[in-house]
Amino acid sequence: MNIDIQRFCVNRKIAPGMGITPFFQLVSQLGLNKVELRNDMSGGSVTDDLSPQAVRELAQRYGIEILSINALYPFNCPDEALMARAKALLETAKETGARALVLCPLNDGTPVAARQTIDALRQLAPLFAEYDVEGLVEPLGFPFSSLRSAREAAALIHEAGAPFRLLVDTFHHALWPDAERELATLDINRVGLVHLSGVEDPRPMEQLTDEQRIMLSDADRLNSAAQVRRLEELGYRGAYSFEPFSSVMESWSGQEIERQIRQGMALIQQACG
After folding, report:
1. What is the DSSP string of 76-112?
2. Which one of 40, 59, 172, 243 has the minimum C-beta count within 10 Å?
3. Residue 148 in contact with residue 177, Cβ under 8 Å?
4. How far apart are CA 199 and CA 203, in angstroms?
């Protein structure tokens, strides 16, 4: 049950100090061909100081497929400003050739009613269709998230009649207490992408933040490699994207990033072998 290496993807969050060109070069040197771009990098732009067309041309030069841009937030609180951000990000996605835009829910402890989330999905769906970009809804497992459950997210997408799919994150999966029970009932075909990271920090799960998210290791408390094996058993055949968040990565060299990615892939192959 080994995973084809071309199903692995690298989220740009792993290389916060690296420009897009060396990032694409690193991914290519690893023998991989999939990346995710972000709108929360230090430069404040998805494409740094490059034009979207220049990024598209760089991706073509290095044989890179841009799976997504992370992220539209908070997608379930639609107002004029959010819709403007959505349009701008979708424009960038179309121009760079990114296949999808990730949608993250409000994450500040404020409850958001199911009806409001459904209405948000219905408002956003025509805009995504206009730009021919896929929407990937990512439930966040934090206790203060307004949408923690993948099963609930799938139900809301269905009720909204929106053509969006789910983004499952092994970190957020581990933080949501009912996630494993729900996974068995989830239509795995509705999962469009999986994010991978690891945690070794010993604090209680409910106290974990993005800062504790590193790469996969033998001491990973999230059991991300085992989560991948479970997803494979359920029939998932999409991409797995490495998305650590810790500030420790600001000091990583290109060599260390490459080592960490190779180790992560090896651990997953060992778990699935």
Report:
1. TS--HHHHHHHHHHHHHHHHHT--EEEE----SS---
2. 40
3. no
4. 10
β-pair partners for 134: 100
Residue 242 DSSP class:
E
Q: Is the peptide bond before 71 cis (omega within 30 degrees of 0)?
A: yes
DSSP 212: G
Q: Is 175 left (phi over 0), alpha (psi -120 to 50) or beta?
A: alpha
Instruction: Name the CA radius of gyration of the chain, rounded.
Output: 18
Q: Which residues of 32-61 are buried (b: 16+ CB within 10 A; e: fewer)?
A: bbbbbbbbebeeeebbbebebebbbebbee
- The SS3 of residue 35 is strand
CA distance 183 to 180: 5
Q: What is the pLDDT of residues 98-133, one digit of tens each?
A: 999 999 999 999 999 999 999 999 999 999 999 999
The rounded distance, in Å, linking the Cα atoms of 230 and 252 is 31
Provide the 3-class DSSP secondary structure of residue 38. strand
CA 44: distance to chain centroid? 18
Q: Is 201 exposed, middle or buried (0-12, 13-18, 19+ CB in 10 A)?
A: middle
- Whether this model's pTM surpasses 0.90: yes
The predicted-structure confidence for 227-255, as pLDDT tens digits, reads as follows 999 999 999 999 999 999 999 999 999 99
